[in-house]
Amino acid sequence: MIKEIQETTKYLKEKGFENPEIGIILGTGLGQLLDEIKIEIEVSYNHIPHFPTATVEFHKGKLIFGELEGKKVMVMQGRFHMYEGYTMQDVTFPVRIMHQLGIKKLLVSNASGSVNLKFKKGELMLIEDHINLLGDSPLAFKGVSQMGERFVDMSAPYDAEMNKAFETIAKEEKITLHKGVYAALLGPQLETRAEYRMLQVLGADAVGMSTVPEIIVANHLKLPVSAISVITDEGDPDNLKPVNIDEIIAMAEKAEPNMIKLFKEVVKSV
Q1: pTM (2 decimals)?
Q2: Please, are residues 105 and 21 in contact by the beta-carbon 8 Å criterion?
Q3: Which end of the chain has fewer CB atoms within 10 angstroms, the N or the C?
Q4: For each of the chain's 270 residues, which pLDDT tens digit applies?
């Protein structure tokens, strides 16, 4: 993997991806942040050596470099998931590339279903902790110790300083920002009533199919990271209705202005 990282980094540097300060991973229905960025370079994933390609129809596949709130940012428009058939190492490869190019902070967004019934559609949740139910780890490969500590401490995987900044800004802007635990399941099927009950027992507040691999690798790289979930559907096991993917995307888009406001202000402050 080290050789692939070097080759990909070299390619992107030659394209002009020089000294990004902050990396941003955009989740489902959260692409409008790009309208706020002064874009300098964009490259399709399928042109980047060793990069996976996003196969989910509502995930675009571009790596973008530009300026947001006076900071150089590198943005993934569309991410990768294990349910697409990718390995954990594939899914997290872009995080290693962004780190190699120089980012000092990472911000992650996703769409998720609420497990905590107090959290409603269209609201935001700041991830305080997570439960990895993917059945794998992005650090479970030969040679991982050449790239960092094999047994990574996960007692505080989300950066306290950035999380505090999100909370402060949300309060100032009167944005509802819950705090909670995110559970990652493999998917792509959505959860059953029994699975929602299990997640409640485990202490999860929201559930999705992404984010946790990237957080683990960020911690492996000692890269401060924060993540926000947009609640797009409600997983009440006693009143579970069929989920409409178009509705999930619409709900993410509805919540997007608040997400953009938070991300912009945090980028400015960190």
Answers
A1: 0.95
A2: yes
A3: N
A4: 889 999 999 999 999 999 999 999 998 767 889 999 999 999 999 999 999 876 665 557 899 999 999 999 999 998 999 999 999 999 999 999 999 999 999 999 999 999 999 999 999 999 999 999 999 999 999 999 989 999 999 999 999 999 999 999 999 999 999 999 999 999 999 999 999 999 999 999 999 999 999 999 999 999 999 999 999 999 999 999 888 888 888 888 889 899 999 999 999 998
Dihedral angle at the C-alpha atoms of 224, 111, 233, 247, nearest 10 degrees?
160
| Separation CA 122–CA 54 (nearest Å) | 25
Q: Quick one: three-class SS letters along the chain?
A: CHHHHHHHHHHHHHHCCCCCCEEEEECCCCCHHHHHCEEEEEEEHHHCCCCCCCCCCCCCCEEEEEEECCEEEEEEECCCCHHHCCCHHHHHHHHHHHHHHCCCEEEEEEEEEECCCCCCCCCEEEEEEEEEECCCCCCCCCCHHHCCCCCCCCCCCCCHHHHHHHHHHHHHCCCCEEEEEEEEECCCCCCCHHHHHHHHHHCCCEEECCCHHHHHHHHHCCCCEEEEEEEEEECCCCCCCCCCHHHHHHHHHHHHHHHHHHHHHHHHHC
| Distance of alpha carbon 7 from the chain centroid | 24
Residue spans of the domains in the chain: they are 2-269
The vertex-22 CA angle with 119 and 1, nearest 5°, equals 100
Say how far residue 114 (Cα) sits from the centre of its chain.
17
